[in-house]
Structure formats: structure tokens, C-alpha cells
Amino acid sequence: MSKYSIHLLVCGGTSCHSAESDVVVCNLRDEIEAKGLSDKVQVITTGCFGFCGKGPIVKVMPDNIIYVQVKPEDAQTIVEEHVVKGRKVERLLYRDPKSNEIIGDSKHMSVFKKQLRIVLRNCGVINPENIDEYIARDGYQALGKALTEMKPEQVIKVVKDSGQRGRGGAGFPTGLKWEIASKNKADQKYVVCNADEGDPGAFMDRSVLEGDPHSVLEAMAICGYSIGASEGLIYVRAEYPMAIHRLKIAINQAHEYGLLGKDILGTGFNFDITLRYGAGAFVCGEETALIHSMEGLRGEPTIKPPFPAQSGYLGKPTNVNNVETFAAIPVIILKGAEWFSKIGTEKSKGTKVFALAGKINNVGLIEVPMGTTLREIIFQIGGGIRNGKKFKAVQTGGPSGGCLTEKHLDMPIDFDNLIAAGSMMGSGGMIVMDEDNCMVSVAKFFLDFTVDESCGKCAPCRIGNKRLHELLARICDGKGIPEDLDRLRNMSQVIKDTSLCGLGQSSPNPVLSTLDNFMNEYEAHVKDKKCPAGECKNLMEYVINAENCVGCTACARVCPVNAISGQRKEVHHIDPAICIKCGACKEKCKFDAIFIR
Amino acid sequence: MSTIKIELRNEDVAKIKEICTSFKNDPQELINVLHSCQEHFGYLPAEVQEVVSGELGVPVAKVYGVVTFYSFFTMTPKGKHPISICLGTACYVRGAEKVLDEFKKELGLNVGQVTKDNKFSLSSLRCVGACGLAPVVLVGEKTYGRVAPDDVRNILKEYE
Amino acid sequence: MSQIKSLADLKKKREELRTGLINAIESKNQVQVKVAMATCGIASGAKPIKEFFSEQLEKRNIPAVVTQTGCMGYCYAEPTVEVKLPDQDPVVYGFVDLKRADQIIEKYIKTGELVDGIIPVNYLTIDSKE
Amino acid sequence: METIKLTIDNKEVEVPNGTTIQKAAKKLGIDIPILCYMELKDMNIENKPGGCRICVVEVQKRRNLAPSCSTNCEEGMVVLTHTPRVLNARRTVMEFILSDHPKDCLVCAKSGNCELQSMAHRLGIRDIPGQEYAAMSTYRKDFSPSIIRDLDKCIMCRRCETMCNTVQTVGALSAVNRGFMAAVAPAFEQNLEFSTCTYCGQCVAVCPTGALTEVNHVPNVLRALADPTKTVIVQTAPAVRAALGEMFGMKPGTLVTGKMVTALRSLGFDYIFDTDFAADLTIMEEGTELLDRLNRHLKGDKTARMPILTSCCPGWVNFFEEYFPDLKEVPSTAKSPQQMFGAIAKTYFADKIKVDRKDLVVVSIMPCLAKKYECQREEFSTEGNRDVDFSISTRELGEFIKQANIDLNNLQEGEFDDPLGESTGAGVIFGTTGGVIEAAVRTAYELQTGKKLERLDFTELRGFEGVRSATIDFNGLPINIGIAHGLGNARKLLDDVRSGKSQFHAIEVMACPGGCIGGGGQPLHHGDSEIIKARAAAIYAEDKSKPIRKSHENPFIIKLYKEFLGKPNSEKAHHLLHTKYFDKKKKIIVKQ
After folding, report:
1. Which of A107, A192, B97, D411 is the most exposed place for a label (fewest CB within 10 A)?
2. What are the residues whose beta carbons fall under 8 Å from the beta carbon of A80, sequence distance 6 or more?
3. How many angstroms separate the CA of residue B63 from the nearest CA in chain A?
4. Which pTM does this prediction carry?
């Protein structure tokens, strides 16, 4: 069909682009034209290959050969050798870092396959509004298998053996949770899906609900069968109308097929699912708060024990799992515990979905096996830092997590390693920050969130976080004193130690982890009254460099507060007492004479 | 505290009762009922809460306690074009605060306020899940992605 | 829709759907276009893209099935569209605006010629053998 | 019962399963400080939000500190209550709480009686770091007829919310807002006046700080006393004498009737009377009404509604007017003793001493905050002149006495004045739950059967269980009696009345747990139900010591009917001593 017999795919991802991949493209095209091959060979720029450390990347199709670190001057060689003569250019081929073997065929390059999609197996593949597409891809087979071939305790055993831990944050073993709920006797039990994904910058659960709602419904029914519950509830954020819409369609379709409702697949098992909407309260991600919210009350957490598995929704045994946890269940049932437990690390099995965002090139939704390193995620899958800036930190676990740094990049990610590093898995938000982000401001931002979202029930969270935020704001304003840093730490530790629920117990993590990892930035704020990242307005000073200033008066004319003085053709001066740091002068100056100190 | 006095018309009361009935007047469904009421009225004035309280048998203080707990519920009407600036982390690190400041300046509003002509209201929200587009601004149903402070004036112009 | 009454029924249904779906597309030599339409996709303008494909493919007499799907994970490149030509591996295009959508139809779908904006697939699936 | 062994501060202790660390520690003599937690033992009242986090302790193998008030003991637990980590946490949390609390302790109504203040003192807080720039959560103040709310002082202990909702089922208060601005308030943060509040005052009774206090009417009383044109008379409710002593360091349950009379005389009241007298009068009216309805009922008169409900308690009256307006014909029409007293004082007594009612000021001393509202009800005044001008609480009286430099401990016992100061033991027991109905039985029995009662102590009607019932044999006629204290308990009985299931002939309701002795105007019990029980014991002791213990034998009551009222339930009695009730179900009112 195509008139071209050879395609040269050149990575146009941001990182490759900054390594002159655009010049590579031009040179390749010139070369092809020169050789008179324009009607046979086509050069295409693509999105990121996720191999930014080795960019620019050129892939030759249909040979499936990948060249790495291609320089503009290599274009000629590639065309002459490979395109014309059909010979691989050995020196540009990728070598396996372990065996040093040359790997030509990109299909065998594990580096391209950092991701493994279990939870996201159907996302972006099937039409979420059509149950048939789900069934065609083994949908509801796991439920069928559980109901007809397994006893409830066998289902629980498979989940236990798989080693899966809850993806909502704390990482409690899923199978154990089910077992506890199954052992508590009651006339009615409930299965609850926590879809109140509240971490700012996290959208894993939304994507699953929007892309593969049936996987969650199927898993809830399996859970219901194993613990002895006939009712399921999904607590979903009202801010997710699309997810709600698709869930409603999915529930209806499952009902029409008899995959929900009475006597499912002729086994006598009944299971129904209803939706409950959240209404914008982050704390409702905490399971006791979530249950109160579902009961029509303020979403305030209560002290555990009793755990929901003992006394949850309406006082009945209730099993609460989050979306991602559920979505993997059908695969675990179908493929077996052994298959699943082979993936991941010793104590954290399977894969984890992350929402990659912030100052990173490939913002997106990714799923990697547990044990993948931050470096692989950020610099390969994520395509590195935007605009070629320097990586500074990555925040995992949302407002409850911590900021990890350069030194954590090669740490395999799993539940325990993250906690040991002062952060947590959380639901899987991953926000990348670069050198322009002031870490004190970042900590302040997260506290701002916590202060907003604290339910107000317990004193340390209600008042303590407010005080933390105030102190951080003072430090950012340049009003901090060195003793404040000790106070910050003490307050943080006490809030962590005394708060009622997970929100307060983890809210100081951003402060503690930045104190641990970026003490120098804090000290710069309180001692030198400087913000190294240049983000804190009150700590910036606009200064005129006498060597560059020609006295053109442009800056003085644009200054809205007349802070700049100086005669024409003489060096100007900015009065820091008047300056409001609007930056207008710096923008106006044609001689690069104004800088920020 | 700011309460706006409105007169409920008979059909309004009937509508609230209908909503409550559709949830079987079950107090457990209070939040779902409030969602439906807010969808219908645009906000939840005191009078609506009073009727809901009566129908569900939940003390009105408790209804108000719930309304003020959840940020999704509001007791003040929104403007014709409600503007929401996402302040989720992804948007924040990409400069959403500066965008918000620009809106505040252009409209002369603080978060939670409505312009005198009821045209615009300003609010912030936490993550709409469109982090790939950060910073994100919503005007009504429409999403604006990768908004810079300089874009603010143009966005507002669309609604003039 | 009729109820599925047993696991055997469910398995039968799966097989019917698999062959049915594949046959429907293959036999008519149809092009399959999937538009990622999760919230971020829609926010980036996926809806008009989907409409464009539906309308234009029909208008240009190209037998095709245009469907929506969930998030493909490439948020930075929204709107994203996956195009599968008969007998070929699917190709994902990112940053699809109306202009690129037109190119995709005119070049890739009509002639098989690749278009800028391809997103290399970078993950394994549960069925991958490693 | 299953028991559990654990060690606290290296001491071993064995406790029943389900015991909290706090209580187990108490067994060992370890007094872990508690702030938000409150329990009224044997009254089924517990407030346990686990919110203040002052009571945290270290439990080995736990990551975080555990709140001892709400963490149950577990086998083999190792608890430490005063490690440096615990002490630092407790102090820091206290500093947090204080940083969001006004510092006007010197002039706060709760000063000296404030649990937060005591806690700050106990923890040795000397400084609140960063308070100079700490933002405070501030709210609008609310002055209702009975209660002042100053939410700036709210520490979110949730005790008032528990009392108002779980115990009283009034639902006027709820936690509102979120986070730093969270507080407990009525709907729309309106004034209590526009809420379903019954002014029972239980929120005030349990508030650990100055967030909820009573409206102070002492200045009005002082002004009246200073006015030479006014004759000022005072009536004291039965529960006051059993609690006032606590404010002067006396043991709970010390009766101070005589000293109180002397103190009131020193304060300058012209006549010192007793609400107990009016209680006897109430029994005459209410008892007669009961018998009338009962006998009509027994004859098959369908218009005679059973049961009859007592109506002495203004909080209770407010409650059924709000929640059970459809039953407003069921309670006795008899006014409360306070209002009967006022009505008689401003007619019969005013005539007797030849003072115009406008120049006669009636002050009541009440254990109650709802009485402040009750005396302001329109139906209880004549041409704008109230029957009872001012009602002050036991607490206010205590403060008043102190301000007048009177040392209650060293006063001589005084006697009430005649004619409205003479009372029987039946009048005294009005102050405790079960007392009104016991007093009514003593009289009704004799009036109905014409026989003399052998035994006056109806112990089957006494006690602290929330809902009690007993059948009294009226010489072969079994009379079923129900008793409820606490409005939540009352609601249960009322629901039965509404649905027609109730088998009672008479029901006594008192709004406050324990009855008036546990009233919202009493000296604060700080969560110790033993105090309330001691007051009850004192009341029964006073009853026992009275020479006359049946209302209808009170010679001044007999005289009053002879000279003035005629017969119980006569037309004149109806006019002066009975009232009617209103449908006060809240309509949709929103005031700016």
C-alpha cells in the first residue's frame, strides 16, 4: 500500500529533541534526497521512546533496528550503510548493559518494556462502555471460575498467596483483609470500593474506572463471594463525572447479562453494586471516614479498632479496597497466585500504577513492576525533566508522602523502601520537581492542602497543621529564625505521633522529608534570607549588574513603583526597600544587566 | 456565615421532595440527595436544607454540618460562568498559583466570590485529573489546558 | 441482551465475541480507530477528533470502526488515537489535532504511509512472554 | 467475665476485657489527664471522640501514641504514661489547643472552673510558642434567652454535640465546617433562638471551657434589689439547696437550705420563699387533673387521653412543642412550679401585702437555664409584667453570694418566710428524677382511694435508669407509671404514646439527666455522676426529715385554696395555674 519501503523513525521526544534530534531528522532527509531515495524512504518523528538516556534514537522499519545516541553527523552513515547497503551500523547499535551484547531488534530490548500492564490491561484497549469487549478479553471469567470451581476460602487463599497488598496507601495484605472480613459472622456484610482518589496529582483510579470499569465490578463480586457479602458499594468522587457515567453503564450492562444481581451464572450467588458519591473531602479516603460519609454523615474518621472488617458500614463487617487493588484481582484469579507473586519484590508483589506528573516530559499513567527504580521511571519512561532542567526531587504518596531526592533514584520502589526513605507509596501520585522548585514552598503547598482538608476532629491535625503552615509561610517570607527549624521538626513529629487518622499521621511527611533532604534550603531561608530556587518572592532581590548596565533608563521607566534610580548613561540602582519584585525591569532590560540575587 | 434569603416556590419544594423520595427518604442517602439538589438549584440555600432535613428526618444542624464539611457543596450561588482553577500538585508545580492570582486581579475577586453582575465566580479545586494539561482552568464545562497568566485575559474575553 | 446463565455460557459468549469481533473487522477489511476518551483526553479535545474520524471515514468511503476507549497512559500527548490497519500491528498517534487526523486518514489509512507523532508502545501486557 | 493482664508504668494490672487504658491506669492510681472525654457513669452517657489527644500514652510495639481514653487494653500490653516522648507530645498538643484559644482567662465566665485552664496548669504550660502570629478561628457570638455561645473558645471536645444529639436528641447543635474552622454550632451558624434548642442547658453543663455559658441575670436582680420602690421576693427550687454548697467547697450532697435562706436574706430580698411550696400546689392541680382524666378514662370516656404527662420541666415543654406538637393536648395543663409561684405571688400575695404587681419583683433561683426562657414566655405575663421577672441559676446565685462577701460556710440556718415558704417532703423531691411522680402518687393515692398511705417511700420510682416504669397498686387499681430523664429517653416514651402503644397512665419527664439536680444551671459536675447521685440522696434526706411529706397536707396550701383558689382545678385555679401549649415546630425561617 505504502509507496515507502523503509521508514526511519526518529524520536522527537523532548529529551532527544534537546540532543538535536531535529537536526538528525534534517540530515537524514537531506541525505535521502541526495541519494534519490525520497520516494522509497520516509523519515518520521515520533513521540518519546522512553529511552531518553540514550537519545537521540533512530529506528529503522521494517528491520526493527534501533540506533542510539545518534549525532547529526551520523545521518550520512545510517543512510549509506543501512538504507543503501542494508548493513547495520555496529557502533550505533544498543548494547545490553549487562552482557554487553549488541541488541538489534527492538522487540528484544527490555529497556523499552519497563512497564507491565496488569491493572491497566484493558485501559486504552477496549471500549469501556461495551461489556462485550470486556468479555472478549476474558472478562468475568475469573468470577465464573471463582463461583463454580472454587470455595470462598480457596479464593481468599489465592489472593493471600499472590502477596498482593492494598494499593490505597498503607499496603495492608489484601488476602488477609478478606480473610478477617470472612471470619466475622454477620447477617449482612459489605464490599466497598474506595474510589475517592483525592491526592492532588493522582489519577490512577479515575483512569481505571473510565477505561475498564468492569474489572472493578468483577473483582468486587469475587470479593463478595469470598467474604460472604451480597452488597457492594462504590464510593466515588463526585468530581469524576465521566467515571460515574461509565460505572453506571457498566453496572447496567452487567445486570442485563446477569453478571450482577440474583443467581449469578446459575450458582445461587447474589451480588449487587450501588454508587455513593463523595463530595470533596480528602479525608474520606480513610476507610472509617469513608464509611461515615457513605452513611450520610460528616466524613470524620473514628478510632480503630474496631476495624471496618469487624464493624463497618451500618455496623456490619465491611471490606474496603481501592480501585487499583480490585482491578488486579480477576487477573490474579485467572493466572494464579504463583504467576502474580513472581512479579515485583520480595515483600511487594505485582505492579503499581503511577500517575507521573510535574516537571517531567512524559506526563502520563504508567504501570511498572514493584522494584522498578525511580530513575527508570523518571528518566526512561518519563522521558526526563522538562526543558533540560536539573532533577531535584520527586514527591510520592501525595500530601502524605515525602520528597525523595537524587540519592533515592536507584532505590527499587516498593512499600517498605518508600517508608524507610521517609515517604510512602500512597495511591501512586508521582510529582517531579526541578531546580526551580523551592522545597520549603513545596512543603508549604502540601501543608496548605492538609490544612484545607483536615476534618478538624483532632487537635494536632486541626491546629497543629495550621501552625506548621504558618511557620513555613513565615520562613518563605523571610521571617524565619534558625530556631524555627527545630520547632518545625518537633511539631511535625508530635502531629505524626498523636493524630487520630492517617491524614494527620502523615501530613507532616512533606515537612520532615524536606527537612531531612533539603536542610540547606531551609537554612538558606532562615539564615541567609535567600531562596536558592528563586521561588520565594520576599527573599529575592533584583540587582543591576554595573558592568552590563548602559544607563538606557528603560528599566526605570517600566518600574511601576519607581524603585529604580540613575541618570541617563549612568549605572542604575534598584532600591530593594521599594521594589515589589514584579520582574518588569528584568524583562525590559536588553543588556542582561538585571539579575536576581 | 452568609446566608441568602430565598423564597422557595411550591414547585421547588415539590422538586426537593421528589428527590428525597427517589432516595427512599433514607438518611444514609443525605449526600446523594444534596448532590441532586445542588444539581437542580445550583447551590444549597438554607431553605433547601431545611426541607431536606424534614424529609429525611435528619436535624437541620446535621444537614448543615454535612454541607459545610464537603467542599463540593456550596451555599452561595455560582456565577453564570464559574471559573475553577485546579490547584492540584501537578498544576501547582507548573505555576497554577500565578494563574489564579491573575484571575483574581482581572476579576477583582477572591476565591469563593461572584462578580457583581453574577457573570463570573471564582473557585479553586484539587485535581481534575487532567495533569497532562497542567495548569488547568475550567470555565463552566470547558477545560483550558496549559494556561499561562498571559492567557487569562483572552479566556475571559471569550465570555464577554 | 440475554442473560448469561452459566460459566459455560460465558465461555461460549467469549469465543463468539472474539471470533465475531475479529471477523467483523477482518472480513470487511475494516480499519479500526480507537480514540482515548478518558477525562484528560476529552479535556484535550478528543471528542471532535472522534467525530471527525467517524464522519470523514464514512465520507471518504473507508470502511472503519471508530470507537472510544480509556486512557492509554500518554497524557502528555493527548489527544491520542490508535489506528489498526487490517493485518497490521496497531499504531498509536499522539497530539492528534484535526490537521493530523486528516493526515492520518489521507496518508496512513489510505496508503500506509506513516505520519509524524507516532508513540512507540513501551509496555508489556499480561499475555507477553518474557 | 474475661480479664486481661497488662502493665502500665511497669505495674501489672488485671482488668475486664473492654476496659480502656485510662480506666485501667486509674485502678493503679495513675491519673492520665483527659480533656475531651466525658462519661456520666450509670447514666449511659459517654463522649468519646478521641479528639483532644491530651491523654495519649506510649504503647510498646505501636508506631504512634495511643489515646488512653479510647484504646482498649489488650493482653500483654506494655503501656508507659509519662515518657519524655509522651510528655513532649502532650505539652505540644496542649500548646496547639491554647494557641487557638482566647487568652482572656482573667475575665472569662469560666475562669477558675475551666477544664482547659486546669489542664494548662496541670501540664505546666508557661508559654505558647508562636502565639504572636498564630491565626485564631473566630466566630460570631450568640446571645439567646438562656445561653451564650462564644465559639472562639470551642475546643471541639464535642461534649455539647453528644448531649444535644445522642442524649437529648434535640439536634440543635452539630459539628460544622471543616479543619481549622470546625466548631459545634446550630444550623447555618444561626442563633440558638432560631434552632430547635430547648434551652435544657446540658451543653452548658458539660462545656469544659467558656464556649457555652448561661446568660447572667444577676445584674437585673441587683438593680431591683437596689430600687427602693420595689418589693423583691425570691423563690428557690428544690435542687438548688442540694448543690449550692459545692460552690463553697462543701462535699457534694451537702444540704444548705437554711444557710441559703440566710444568704438570700443578707442579699436583701424582702421575702424568701420556696418553690417547693409551688411544687405542692402543682401536685394539687396536676394530681387532680390526673385523677379526673383517669376516672373518665376508666368510665370509657374516649376524650380522656391517657397517659397524662407531667409539665413542670420547661426544657421538656419546649421539646414536645418542637417535636411532638401533635400531642400537645396530652401533657397536664398545670404550669410549672416556678410559674405557679409567680402567678400566686403577683395576685394572692401581692394583694396580701398590698403591693401593686408592677412593684413586686419575683426572682427565681433555679438549677435550670430553660427557666430563663420560660419566665419570658408571653403567656406568663399580665400586661407586659412577667409573673416571674428574673430567673437565675444555682451558679449565678453562688457567684452573687460570693460577690456580696457572704461566707456561706459560716452562716446561721435561716427559715423561709410565710406564707409561700412552707412546703412538704413531696415538694422537695421535685428536684430529682422520679420525684414529681412520687409526690403525685402520695397525694393521688389518698385522694382516689380515701385511704391513708402506709408507706411513703416509693423506691420503685427512684433510681437513675433512663427509662423506668412501675405499677402502683391504688387499692386494687393498678396504675402504670413511666419515668424518663433525659430528652432522648423521653422521646422513646413519646414515640409509644404517638403510636398508641403506651400502656402508662402517667409519665414523668425531666429534661436533664438525673432530673433538676443535674440541671444546666447547677454547679458543674465535670463528668462525675457521683456528684449528681449525692445531690439526689440529699434531696431524699430532706424529704425524710420533713414533718409533712404529702402535698395535700401542706397547711398553707389548704389555706390558699380556702382563701383564694377554691378547689383544685377550679375556674380561678385554671386561670392562674394552668396553661396551654403551642406548635413550635420550626418553620423555614432564615434571618440575616
Report:
1. A107
2. A31, A35
3. 8
4. 0.90
User: Which domains occur in chain C, in start order?
Assistant: 29-119 (3.40.30.10)
Contact between chain B and chain D (3 or more Cβ pairs less than 8 Å apart): yes
Distance CA A531, CA A435 (A): 11
Distance, CA of D433 to chain centre: 11
Contact A210 C38 (CB under 8 A): yes
Q: Does the beta carbon of C40 lie under 8 angstroms from any beta carbon of chain B? A: yes
**Residue D294's CB: how many other CB atoms inside 10 A?**
21
Q: Tell me which of D443 and A47 has the higher pLDDT.
A: D443
Query: What is chain B's alpha carbon radius of gyration, rounded to the nearest angstrom?
Result: 18
Number of domains in chain D: 3
Do D210 and D225 fall within a single domain?
no
Three cell numbers, residue D162? 453528644
Residue in D with minimal Cα distance to B75: D188
What are the residues whose beta carbons fall under 8 Å from the beta carbon of A105, sequence distance 6 or more? Answer: A64, A65
| D590: confidence class by pLDDT, cuts 50, 70, 90 | very low
Asked if D267 and D400 count as a contact pair (C-beta separation under 8 A), the reply is yes
Any C CB within 8 A of A121 CB: yes
Distance from CA of B20 to the nearest CA of C (A): 30
**Contact between B59 and D190 using a beta-carbon 8 Å cutoff:** no
**Locus of grid cell 483536615:** A454
Are C98 and C52 a contacting pair, CB within 8 Å? Answer: yes
Sheet holding A391-396, edge to edge: A364-369, A351-358, A429-434, A391-396, A402-405
Whether residue D586 lies inside any domain: the answer is no
Residue numbers in A near D179 (CB within 8 A):
451-456, 462, 466
D379 located within any domain: yes
Measured CB to CB, residues of chain B less than 8 Å from chain D are 1, 3, 5, 8, 46-47, 49-51, 53, 59-65, 68-69, 71
d(CA D428, CA D546): 9
Residue of A nearest to B134 (CA): A358
Please give the grid coordinates belonging to residue D554.
401542706
The CATH number that applies at residue D471 is 3.40.50.1780
Three-point CA angle D110, D115, D118, nearest 5°? 100
CB D390 within 8 A of CB D357: no
Range of the domain at D10: 3-82
The CA-CA-CA angle for residues A360, A365, A369, to 5°, reads: 105
User: For chain C, which ranges sit under pLDDT 50?
Assistant: 129-130
Inside any domain, residue D590: no
Yes or no, beta carbons of D174 and B65 under 8 Å apart: yes
- Sequence-distant (6+) residues with CB within 8 A of D295 are none
Provide the residue type at D443 as one letter: T
Rounded to whole angstroms, the Cα distance separating D586 from C79 reads 55
Q: Name the strand (E) or helix (H) holding D477.
A: strand D477-485
Put simply, the answer to whether C39 touches B133 (Cβ < 8 Å) is no
The single-letter DSSP state of residue C107 is: I
Question: What pLDDT, in 10s, does the model give residues A318-377?
Answer: 999 999 999 999 999 999 999 999 999 999 999 999 988 888 888 888 999 999 999 989
Query: Which residues of chain D lie closer than 8 angstroms to A298, CB-CB?
Result: 175
Residue positions of D annotated with a catalytic role: 286, 289, 312, 332, 371, 374, 379, 516
Nearest CA in chain A to C128: A116
- CATH class assigned to B81-157: alpha beta
CA distance D484 to A549: 88
Q: Does C78 touch chain B (CB under 8 A)?
A: yes
pLDDT of residue D579: 95
Domains and CATH numbers, chain A: 6-113 (3.40.30.10), 131-339 (3.40.50.11540), 351-434 (3.10.20.600), 439-526 (1.20.1440.230), 541-596 (3.30.70.20)
